Amino acid sequence: MVRKSLEFVTPDWTMPDHIQAYTTTRKGGVSPPPYDSLNLAEHVNDTHENVEKNRQLLASALTLPASPLWLQQTHSTKVINSQDWYEGIEADAIYCNQNDHVCAIMTADCLPLLISNQTGTEIAAIHAGWRGLADGIIETTIERFQDSTDKLHVWLAPAIGPEKFEVGQDVFEAFINHSDTAQVAFQQTDNSHYLADIYQLARLRLRQLGITQMSGGDACTVTETSRFFSYRRDGETGRIVSLIWIGNK
């Protein structure tokens, strides 16, 4: 999907028209290398002017109803309600049941999850790095929903793919200690290293909560160099953003 030279990835789900959800790519912005070009993060040493221009381009391309509710993400399990948001708040997920509150998650390999119930009255956006995922960020977020879990649909937005996410014994044990079933998401490469499938790890957690409606989880931010930023690949780099909001019916 392309709008005004920006490119977006959109969820492959069937939601009411008033639910708007997108993930940006790195294309269409003004930032120079290594942030080329649609870097939307203030904390990565890109200039404030470039980031603001990129955010303006994003707002224009998607006709955003309001400025995104940016979070200071810390790999925690903290979830906030969009009505409690303020500038600089630390959290790794945001729940919303209000119109025109644009929930936003920034990533460059970690897993963004966008969630909506079938009627489009409740949404959430989650930042799930391995630590937050292991500690229960998904479970803590789902607890906010009033609707039952069988009415929720989750889109797994672009993240690091299973062939590139090498982790150590500590990560393996963090998930196995929660559930033995997590072993299916790991491929051992030597005595102390594994390839981890962060998409599969998230799906396992979601299924344990009774969520069966899931889509996405087929991108790789590391290998799709021209489309996505990747901290693991490049170190100094920009951030893509996954957004979701409830529009007017």
TrEMBL record:
Pfam families: Cu-oxidase_4. Keywords: Hydrolase, Metal-binding, Transferase, Zinc. The keyword Zinc applies. CDD domains: YfiH (cd16833). It catalyses: adenosine + H2O + H(+) = inosine + NH4(+); inosine + phosphate = alpha-D-ribose 1-phosphate + hypoxanthine; S-methyl-5'-thioadenosine + phosphate = 5-(methylsulfanyl)-alpha-D-ribose 1-phosphate + adenine; adenosine + phosphate = alpha-D-ribose 1-phosphate + adenine. The keyword 4Fe-4S does not apply. It comes from the Bacteria. Belongs to the purine nucleoside phosphorylase YfiH/LACC1 family. NCBIfam families: peptidoglycan editing factor PgeF. This is Purine nucleoside phosphorylase. The lineage of its organism: Bacteria, Pseudomonadati, Pseudomonadota, Gammaproteobacteria, Thiotrichales.
